[in-house]
Specification:
By secondary structure, this protein is an alpha+beta fold. 19% of the residues lie in helices and 38% in strands. It contains five helices and 21 strands. The strands form five sheets. Strands 1-2-3-4-5-9-7 form a seven-stranded antiparallel β-sheet, with helices on one face. The protein has a four-stranded antiparallel β-sheet with strand order 8-6-11-12, with no helix packed on it. It has a four-stranded mixed β-sheet with strand order 17-20-18-19.
Length: 396
């Protein structure tokens, strides 16, 4: 009886083997290993084995042919996640692996993505120019598909995904250009902070398996506001705003500010380590501070007949929190240009010497009002909010 049972068991095993062979399946093809490959990022079990994906920031961008992205790589995006107050970039290297049922690597593909965006100071919407490129293929990997979309925090909407939401297919060396568009519905007299987050799906087409999402952010926080000027605009946070005053345009005014930055240490004079703070209160508050520095007792400003159309120019500006010190406390100077070279004459030293909190300069009215107008334009172009720090750059 035992011999009969063994015989029946053998017959049943042979029948099962024959069935598997008829279906094209070997009895040696066991279920895929239940242990995901280690060190390969996020992994998902498939009928054939495993699919894994890992995304890491790029330290430096890969060469791309797209003019909009290549221009950024040569300029504000020389490193993978560079930014300044008006531009930002991100670069991501995404690796996809396919493994068989025994955990052996069957194929690998690498896709790099580089994005560049220029924010506008006159509207709360912007577009990222994105280039993706297949840079490596190994094993069975010959073609990789990729989808890319984004979301954003704050008062922000992604108005269009890359490639219209459809996947692109890349072979080794292929490059595709796409765009992500954003807009902010920031309300008048308010601002909003925004962080874009990106999600991509990659899949090696020659290796069965479903794509795994890769998610990252660009490492930068953006700010859109409708508090400056007559329209909204956006900047990249983490960068000091600046007001650039050119000597070629504003002559004596620029020289006066530069002299204060180089010779005095008693106040914030708009340097990177001692920036100015934009004042609230508008024209009325600025006029009050200007009177305190220029016309108030005990030492009101007196025009110098040797200066054409002489006017009182105060620094720090009357529109800065640091402005408005009584003129008697300031060092008084006359910038003069002789034979093409500037020199600064000290008319009266502050009682505080090198620690003077301000200067009062004899400046032609045209230079004075021109520099003031440049300050006003820079507040809008650099989106400098009330009580925000800014640097004063003196340029040729």
């Amino acid at each position: 009886m035992k011999r009969l049972r063994r015989l029946l068991a053998t017959v049943a095993a042979l029948a099962l083997t024959a069935t598997l062979l008829a279906l094209g399946t070997s009895p040696a093809a066991a279920a895929p290993t239940k242990v995901a490959p280690k060190g390969y990022g996020a992994c998902k079990a498939t009928a054939a084995g495993w699919t894994c994906t890992k995304a890491v920031p790029m330290a430096a961008p890969v060469a791309m042919t797209a003019p909009s992205v290549r221009e950024a790589s040569d300029g504000p995006c020389k490193n993978g996640r560079d930014s300044d107050r008006h531009n930002y970039c991100w670069g991501e290297k995404i690796t996809i692996w396919g493994f068989d049922s025994k955990g052996k690597e069957a194929g690998r593909a690498v896709v790099v993505a580089l994005s560049f965006a220029r924010l506008s100071s006159s509207k709360a919407e912007w577009t990222e120019n994105i280039a993706v490129k297949a840079t490596e293929m190994e094993g069975e990997a010959k073609t990789v598909s990729m989808e890319l979309s984004a979301t954003c925090s704050g008062l922000c909407t992604v108005t269009s995904p890359a490639w219209g939401g459809a996947p692109v297919e890349l072979k080794l060396g292929d490059e595709e250009i796409g765009h992500l568009s954003f807009t902010s519905a920031v309300a008048k007299d308010t601002h909003t902070l925004i962080t874009p987050t990106y999600t991509s799906f990659e899949n090696i087409l020659e290796i069965p398996g479903s794509p795994i999402p890769s998610t990252w952010n660009n490492g930068r926080e953006l700010r859109c506001d409708a508090e400056v000027g007559g329209y909204p605009g956006c900047i990249v946070m983490g960068h000091l705003a600046n007001v650039t005053i050119r000597e070629s345009a504003y002559g004596a005014a620029a020289i006066a500010y530069a002299w204060a930055q180089s010779n005095l240490s008693g106040n914030n004079f708009g340097t990177p380590t001692r920036p100015l703070l934009r004042n609230a209160g508008g024209d009325k508050e600025a006029d009050k501070k200007r009177r305190q520095s220029c016309t108030a007792a005990p030492l009101p400003f007196k025009k110098d007949p040797s200066v054409t159309d002489d006017s009182c120019d105060e620094f720090p500006f009357a529109r800065a929190v640091q402005g408005g010190t009584n003129g008697s406390e300031c060092t008084e100077i006359i910038p003069r240009k002789t034979d093409g070279a500037w020199r600064v004459e000290v008319v009266r030293e502050s009682p505080h010497g090198k620690n003077a909190p301000c200067i009062r300069a004899h400046v032609p009215l045209k230079d004075n009002t021109g520099a003031g107008g440049e300050l006003g334009r820079a507040v809008v172009s650099d989106r400098i909010l009330e009580f925000e720090w800014y640097e004063v750059i003196i340029a040729p």
